[in-house]
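Lab notes, practical 5.
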Amino acid sequence: MTSFNKTVTFEECITIRYYEYERSEEDEDKKGKDWQRTVDLTCREFKLSVEKGGCGGNWNILESKLDELEEPCWLLIGQLWQRLYRGAKRIEEDESSDDEEDGNEKPSADQDQDK
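Output from the prediction step:
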């Protein structure tokens, strides 16, 4: 039986490719023009008191601030709704007649989150 000794260097086994793209345009296409302001509203300012420029945990105040944005990031808004109301349909969504018959209620937009 014959054994072979072959040494392979790392440089021989790897190919490096460089791609150029405009990250800001890509981010804007995916997230919306005002995604940074949406992050501020949903993550930093939602629980902040109204006196300090926040929403005070009130969904109606958040909606009014989001209405001022040209192109908010709907993904972040949906994630906040999911955290607050755990799968309940949003106020503007149509409920099927099955849900109404089951007695499932939508949460109030000003529902107190402190339990």
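Observations recorded by the TA: The two ends are 76 Å apart (CA to CA). The longest helix spans residues 74-85.
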